[in-house]
Amino acid sequence: MSQWRIFFKENWLTLVIVLGLAGAYILLRTPGDVFASPEAIEAQITAGQPTVIEFYSNRCSICLIAKPKVDRLEKEMQGQATLLRLNVKDPVGRKLAVKWGVRGVPSFFVFNGEGTLVYASAGSPNIEEVKNAVEQAIQ
Predict the structure, then answer these.
(1) What whole-number distance in Å separates Cα of residue 24 and Cα of residue 33?
(2) Residue 12 belongs to what domain range?
(3) Which of the chain's ends, N or C, has fewer CB atoms near its CB within 10 Å?
(4) Do 90 and 61 have their domain in common?
(5) CATH number, domain at 88?
(6) pLDDT tens-place string over residues 11-44
(7) What total number of domains does the chain contain?
(8) What is the pLDDT of residue 1?
(9) In terms of domains, do 64 and 130 share one?
(10) Cβ proximity of 89 and 73 under 8 Å
């Protein structure tokens, strides 16, 4: 038997698991929004429409697991609020995370259209709470 055949025969399960994990990472990672400066994000927050900001990292397992829920939230809020995703590894995301006291990811902030913070939460997102905060910001 060739060495490759022996290798695959002995390690097929490990290879399947590694390929599955790599595929899941590719599907679940968040591309994020790109902004030139923190001021551009702050301008968006005060643009008159409620804004939800998610601080995340693609190295955070909770962030990866929460991505489908956040995607669904974004679709449900379409037209009512803007969802911005800021990677804490990006320079702009890092500056705002420090400025706003983000201690862990994922973290969610909801601002009303005037730029007032109406909701903040860290950890696995409670989508219903975020939606309720957006509804309160609209009123």
Answers:
(1) 21
(2) 1-30
(3) C
(4) yes
(5) 3.40.30.10
(6) 888 888 888 888 877 777 777 777 888 999 989 9
(7) 2
(8) 62
(9) yes
(10) no
The residue among 132, 40, 28 whose CA lies nearest residue 95 is 40
Q: Are residues 42 and 72 in the same domain?
A: yes
4 and 59 inside one domain: no
Closest CA to 88 of 134, 28, 22, 33: 33
Specify whether 25 is located in the same domain as 45. no
The three-state secondary structure class of 53 is: strand
Residue type, 16: V
Q: Can you give the pTM of this predicted structure? A: 0.79
Nearest to 80 by CA among 110, 39, 105, 42: 110
> Would you state the pLDDT for residue 84?
94
Residue 109 token pair: 């902030």
Residue-level pLDDT at 103: 92
Distance (Å, rounded) from C-alpha 22 to C-alpha 36? Answer: 30
